[in-house]
Amino acid sequence: MSWKIADRELDSRFLLGTAAYPSPQIMLDAVRASGAQVVTVGLKRQSAAGACGGQLFFSMLRDLGCHLLPNTAGCSTAAEAVALARMAREIFDTSWIKLEVIGDEHTLQPDVFELVAAAGTLAREGFQVFPYCTDDLVVCRRLLDAGCVALMPWAAPIGSGQGLINPPALRTLRERLPDAPLIVDAGIGSPMDAAQAMELGFDAVLLNSAVSRALDPVRMAEAFKWAIQAGRLAWEAGIMAEQDMAVATTPVSGRPFVLD
């Protein structure tokens, strides 16, 4: 079932990164296998294109027919992120921007103060801002107040593959921000993690390393595709409540009977 994010209607709820693949061809094949309609691309990070050059790499991405979501990976101040976002809009001809402002180089945790400041500036300039943030409810509210079109809270530190380290916090975001598009971003390690995020009611999953670092990125991309779809279907169907004790699935009448 299609869904709307910012100014676009999408069929896929899988957003995929394009960095650190073994080769450009494997990256292209993985994107196709994933069914993703949105791919992220960073101006400051080395791309999978390697020696084939930036312009050729960007042309390859455009040929996929996917919508590009440039990011400000590598920025540590609001001013730096805003400048890079403006450059990305000129290069890619899109107002979409995945806003990253990193406050700690060890955990790659966002600097929430600089993030909110940058988000406000970019939103006023007409950008459709997708901030990479923590799972802090108050920070997420500030980002929405600043004009962000969606929120991208982490599941765990970027590239760690730890999965959802704080499901209750993510569940709280979904419950307290029922109308906000929520996309789990960072820390996903396996398709099971992606399905869990979708079962919490999140709208989509964005990941990179779990596919690009897999032994077979193309097959892993397809595995995530189906896991995300399954998780969304489970959320829509309504998952049964957990019980503290056993509950018989077959009711009994208390009277035996004999089948002829």
Automatic annotation (TrEMBL):
Pfam families: ThiG
EC number of the protein: 2.8.1.10
Main localization (coarse): cytoplasm
Source organism: Castellaniella daejeonensis
Assembly behavior: Homotetramer. Forms heterodimers with either ThiH or ThiS.
Alphabetic keyword roster: Cytoplasm, Schiff base, Thiamine biosynthesis, Transferase
Gene (UniProt): thiG
Coiled coil: none
Record-stated family: Belongs to the ThiG family.
The protein's annotated pathway: Cofactor biosynthesis; thiamine diphosphate biosynthesis
Enzyme class of the recorded protein, top EC level: transferase
Residues the record marks as active site: 98 (schiff-base intermediate with dxp)
Cross-referenced InterPro entries: Aldolase_TIM, Thiazole_synthase_ThiG, ThiG
Residue positions binding 1-deoxy-D-xylulose 5-phosphate: 159, 186-187, 208-209
Keyword rRNA-binding in record: no
Cell location: Cytoplasm
Name used for this protein in its record: Thiazole synthase
Catalytic reaction annotation: [ThiS sulfur-carrier protein]-C-terminal-Gly-aminoethanethioate + 2-iminoacetate + 1-deoxy-D-xylulose 5-phosphate = [ThiS sulfur-carrier protein]-C-terminal Gly-Gly + 2-[(2R,5Z)-2-carboxy-4-methylthiazol-5(2H)-ylidene]ethyl phosphate + 2 H2O + H(+)
Transmembrane segments annotated in the record for this chain: none
